[in-house]
């Protein structure tokens, strides 16, 4: 992998990731951009014990532009974009409309391909591996920032999720605090260790799913994917390395080599869940990584949470009163039947 760092016209960092060492990336951003001005701040909620990022400057961000005005496509004659190059493999840049910035963290955009009409599932294993290398590299770089406590690599896919740019891309958030979901997992991790001497909550969950087998949808030599016993979403899969590690940087070579193929297979199955002729499945793909400086970091388990808000063709799972008002999920699809369906669509 070759990484090339450059700057956009307003000073934001842009990085190209290439599979070939000899690739030259010297295109210049010629847009007349003014420096990015943010109003991000973090406010603590004393009732819920969590933090909220207030980012009012994001109201004017680009919203569903036509394909010929996409800011994530390569620059071409008559269209200057966030990517000055005429083509690219994987590109990462600082978000122009960040939720978190400066002393309050960092936000980056990850473009998986220059092909506007593709999706992550369309990538080759080589290109998917390059994306994984980019995620890993950014995690390592964020770890050096004093303002970042935790890194979150994720992809929102589909208008139903709220995506505002159709080009295949994801994001990386560097939070200045430990996120509520992670804090809850760490709390339960510690409680489990106190009640199960020598046990690890993540290891025991994976062992239980492997032993049961009814919710396992894919298992390789180094990875296992299953629908969790208490899945929140209609179709939800968790992917774990069989050797527990706290974040992407700690994967060994064998697990890293197997990951692209396993991940692509899961994404392709998601697009088949609802049958032929259906539009692409909207999803969120969320990589859970351990906070950098937490005392339980070594006991945390890197894992992917992949889920869709679609519950059946043409119908979405709405986060209505119980979910949004009380945080109490109600799932319309049994985890066992969801797992069966995801197994059925393997290799179609």
Explain what the structure shows.
With 348 residues, the protein is an alpha+beta fold. Helices cover 23% and strands 23% of the residues. Strand 14 and strand 15 (315-316) form a beta hairpin. Helix 1 (125-142) packs across helix 4 (253-270). The longest helix has 18 residues, at 125-142. It is globular and about 60 Å long. It starts with a strand and ends with a helix.
Radius of gyration: 20 Å
Derived from helix and strand composition plus strand pairing, the structural class reads alpha+beta
**What is the count of helical runs?**
6
Mean pLDDT level: 96
Number of strands: 15
Biggest sheet: strand arrangement = 1-2-5-6-8-7-12-13-11-10-9
Secondary structure layout plus pairing:
Elements (H helix, E strand, L loop, with lengths): L1 E6 L5 E6 L22 E5 L4 E5 L35 E5 L11 E6 L13 H18 L7 E8 L11 E7 L4 H16 L5 H12 L3 E4 L3 E4 L8 E7 L11 H18 L12 E6 L14 E6 L1 E3 L2 E2 L4 H6 L8 H10 L4
Antiparallel strand pairs: 1-2, 2-5, 3-4, 5-6, 6-8, 7-8, 7-12, 9-10, 10-11, 11-13, 12-13, 14-15
Short description:
The protein is α+β, with helices and mostly antiparallel strands. It is 23% helix and 23% strand.
Task: Give keywords.
348 residues; alpha+beta; eleven-stranded antiparallel beta sheet; 6 helices; 23% strand; globular
């Amino acid at each position: 992998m070759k990484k090339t760092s450059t700057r956009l016209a307003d000073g934001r960092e842009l990085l190209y990731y290439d599979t070939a060492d000899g690739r030259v990336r010297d295109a210049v951003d010629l847009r007349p951009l003014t420096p990015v001005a943010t109003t991000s701040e973090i406010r603590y909620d004393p009732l819920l014990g969590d933090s909220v990022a207030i980012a009012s400057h994001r109201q004017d961000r680009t919203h569903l532009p036509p394909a010929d005005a996409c800011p994530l496509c390569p620059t071409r004659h008559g269209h200057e974009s966030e990517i000055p190059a005429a083509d690219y493999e994987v590109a990462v840049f600082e978000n122009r409309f960040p939720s978190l910035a400066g002393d309050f963290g960092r936000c980056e955009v990850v473009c998986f391909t220059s092909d506007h009409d593709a999706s992550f599932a369309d990538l080759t294993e080589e290109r998917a591996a390059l994306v994984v290398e980019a995620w890993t590299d950014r995690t390592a770089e964020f770890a050096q920032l004093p303002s970042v406590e935790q890194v979150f690599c994720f992809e929102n896919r589909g208008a139903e999720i709220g995506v505002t740019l159709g080009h295949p891309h994801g994001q990386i958030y560097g939070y200045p605090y430990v996120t509520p979901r992670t804090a809850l997992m760490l709390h339960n991790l510690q409680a489990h260790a106190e009640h199960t001497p020598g046990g690890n909550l993540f290891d025991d969950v994976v062992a239980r799913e492997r032993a049961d087998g009814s919710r396992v949808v894919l298992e390789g030599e180094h990875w296992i994917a299953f629908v969790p016993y208490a899945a929140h979403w209609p179709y939800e899969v968790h992917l774990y390395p069989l050797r527990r590690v706290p974040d992407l940087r700690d994967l060994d070579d064998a697990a890293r080599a197997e990951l692209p193929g396993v991940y692509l297979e899961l994404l392709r199955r998601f697009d088949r869940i609802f049958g032929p002729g259906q539009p692409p499945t909207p999803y969120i793909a969320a990589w859970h990584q351990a906070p950098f400086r937490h005392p339980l970091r070594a006991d945390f388990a890197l894992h992917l949470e992949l889920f869709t808000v679609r519950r059946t063709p043409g119908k979405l799972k709405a986060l209505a009163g119980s979910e949004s008002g009380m945080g109490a999920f109600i799932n319309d699809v049994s985890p066992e039947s969801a797992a069966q369906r995801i197994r059925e669509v393997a290799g179609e």
